[in-house]
Amino acid sequence: MKWERLLSRGRFGEKPGFIPTQAARSEFEVDYDRIIFSAPFRNLQDKTQVFPLPEQAFVHTRLTHSLEVSSVGRSLGKAAGEFLLEKYPSLSQSGISASEIGGIVAAAALTHDIGNPPFGHAGEEAISDFFKFHPAGLSWQKHLRPEQWIDLCQFEGNAQGFRMLVSKQYGLKLTYATLAAFTKYPRPSQIAHRDIARRSQKKFGFFINQLADFEQMTDFLGIEKSSDECWLRHPLAFLVEAADDICYSIIDLEDGCTMGLVSFEETVKLLQPILGEKFDAKKLENRTQSQNLGALRALAIGALIQQTVEAFAQYEESMCKGNFDKALTDVIPAAKALQAITDLSVQKIYRSKLVLEKEAAGFQVLEGLLEVFGQALYHKFYAPTRFSGQDKSILRLLPEDFPLKGWGEEVNPYPLLRALIDYISGMTDKYALNLYRRVKGISFPGV
């Protein structure tokens, strides 16, 4: 893969021959602005990061997490860009700057969680489980092709994110470079063989009905295939992934300490190997715990950025050839320290009673919403003798632009179900909870 092509300014959704405007903002800054003003991004302000429906204002949501990942991504991308421009002078001649490369990573990192449903990873599992186990979900299987059914039974936030970014509904028309840097898992849900040694095949990155969109992007950028069914990652996707890994490792630990789930002493002990010589115990004196946590977090993130950029420089050629396919944070000097943080976070934060109780409630909420809406749609189009007055009332709650025409026994309902999942996965935590209460008769509007 060639960097000149990988960094193209061409836009998804624009006609062939599109010429980017020469304005004060680069095309990748335009990407960033379009994302940050979009409705899907705005909804992240009330979506779970780790702690569902947090009462503490300090604790991170998907929105604050995404902004922080984007900030780290910009630093990683700009530093990596300086390395690339020095190594490949032809990039400068084509008008590419280090800031633009930083802009690609920043924009892609800003969107990295945009496809996540309410209630975090529990929400992903709840949507998948509805189709795998719930009678109202299983009823759709006989109407779908096998590859479509697999998509529905394996809801994946990364694939949902790609779907949203290329959707005409939001009109983002991002650059191909930003879309590719966003895509950590360049493969469909169903493949004959998954190479577990390749990080990029751990999950999938697009649904089956977005295959043509994905191929359009890879063809434009010259991204090659690693097998008949899978593609190589865009090299900048490794930096987007690293920005996320750095932020959730360090900041989830900080949140856990703030919530009282991890002691301050234990937090310092975990961060100390990352800081190395930069750690000075005397500077922790005469300051509040919050101030110390902020200072330690900043130093740790700075150290991890430096190590990650050095690893990128070391493996850049192998990335372009498709030989390197690991997380950059797994090959840096601080890898063991990050793993220790992850192990403790799983034990004391991600599996804390507070998190598990609210995740369990999230399962009920999403299953309940999918049940009432999915069953009403099924009755209307595929079992009309059972289409009740309650079903009619439920369907009136769907958005005005929901595709409610043209379906029936002879029509494949996969796009209909994708639209339903778009609607429910796009909800905020609180909106999903309140709607669930209303449709189940637990609460009434205005009461």
UniProtKB/TrEMBL annotation:
Q: Which Pfam families match?
A: HD (PF01966), HD_assoc (PF13286)
Drop me one GO molecular function for this one: dGTPase activity
Query: What SUPFAM superfamilies does UniProt report for this protein, alphabetically?
Result: HD-domain/PDEase-like (SSF109604)
The organism's place on the tree of life at top rank: Bacteria
Quote the SMART domains the UniProt record gives: HDc
Keyword Hydrolase tagged: yes
Domain HD/PDEase: start-end pairs: 58-258
* InterPro entries with a match to the protein in the record: dGTP_triP_hydro_central_sf, dGTP_triphosphohydrolase_C, dGTPase, dGTPase-like, HD/PDEase_dom, HD_domain, PHydrolase_assoc_dom
Which UniProt key words apply to this protein?
A: Hydrolase
Q: CDD domains, from UniProt?
A: HDc
GO BP, sorted A to Z: dGTP catabolic process
Q: Does the keyword Hydrolase apply?
A: yes
Q: State the protein's name.
A: DNTP triphosphohydrolase
Q: Which organism is it from?
A: Algoriphagus formosus
Task: Tell me the lineage of the source organism.
Answer: Bacteria, Pseudomonadati, Bacteroidota, Cytophagia, Cytophagales
